[in-house]
Predict the structure.
Amino acid sequence: MTRPIPLQRGPNSPGLDNPGRRALLVGSAGAMASVSLLGFTPLARAQSAMTLPDYAAWKDQSALIVHSANTMETRRDAIGSGVLTPSDRLFVRNNLPPPPADVTDQPDTWAVRIDGVKNPKTLTVAELKSLGVVTVASVLQCSGNGRAFFPHGASGTQWSVGAAGCVMWTGVPLKTVVEALGGPVAGATYITSTGGETLPDGLDPKTVVVERSVPTRALEHALLAWGLNDEPLPRAHGGPLRLVVPGYYGVNNVKYVKRVAFTEQQTDAKIQASGYRIRDVGMKGAPDQPSMWEMNVKSWITAPLSESRPGRTMIYGVAFGGSRAVAGVEVSTDGGEHWQPARFLGPDLGPFAWRPFVFATDLSAGEHRLVSRATDVDGNPQPEGRKDNERGYGHNGWRDHGVTLTVA
Ligand SMILES: Nc1nc2c(c(=O)[nH]1)N[C@H]1C(S)=C(S)[C@@H](COP(=O)(O)O)O[C@H]1N2
Ligand SMILES: [Mo]
């Protein structure tokens, strides 16, 4: 008989005491024992068993689709109708393994270097906390959210709708920090931020480092965040410190941020120069192609998703404007032939947050194609179609995001 192998416990992993998770562990213990005998790393073991990796063991596994040890998305039926995404349901996307577990033991000692300002300086989180504090609700969404809907089979994680969540970030406005250091140097055009992961040996650092540049207009709303949903920023989400650029795609929100620099040029790191660029299917990435910066208007239905009973039906979803506030959202139960306005639920948490919505209707027996279409405050509606592009970025077309409901 094989003795079950306990998964290593993370510093804060309440998820291990969740009964659903324990059942799953017992069930897969044999499989895990055999792979560990073959000498697989703990990450590979988590991957093959599709359980949560150690650094995310505190997450609610029943709410997540674990694509790999570094990619987990929120299930469409776990998004719920609350205004915020609970941290234990929030998606995770790491391009590199995260820093070691003790990185968040003494979060106030983490230091970030600020360059490209009049008086460059290294500041600890404790010092940042003494400069100012704001809390901002914003949608965090991966550029590849919706990639699964591209028919050309875009390479990368096959995210459906769940590489997105709306959360509260607490930190100091980057503008406050920069002003305290004399302001950006003349000629600064980009804010270039570097992630603090240890880079794998033997590779050109430029090909693996998570270093992203955003235009200096992002300074208006950017913050250096140490809090997520009113708790210390967990390691899985970039703790102790992360750059947050409300309204910008996930990749620009650099986790474990160790340097923020005002620069004339964009970084030549691969993730910026050729990665996260919109180009035609079959094309290679290049710096002259549009970068994944400001997000576009988007919505999707979250319930019901497959079956319901005839009669009165509440159709729920979420809608956001991306880099500007969402103004409204409509729902169609006949695949986009007829539209009616839905009603927003709960408080408005500001222009970068999403709004849960509900549309009450009567459904007869049969199949119904449910779709939703949001419009931002500038009057931009979600398009019907998608813009096919090599890596499957930025999909906000309403047709592909619909669901087919069987009413019986
Ligand atoms: N340092 C660092 N920052 C990073 C990443 C990373 O791998 N390393 N991934 C980026 C990508 S592609 C996304 S979508 C978001 C995901 O944030 P989350 O894991 O907190 O959900 O973080 C971004 N910031
Ligand atoms: Mo991403």
Summary: Residues 90-96, 140, 142, 195, 197, 210, 237-238, 250-251, 253-256 surround MTE (ligand 1) (CB under 6 Å). Helices lie at 19-37, 42-49, 125-129, 174-180, 205-208, 270-273.
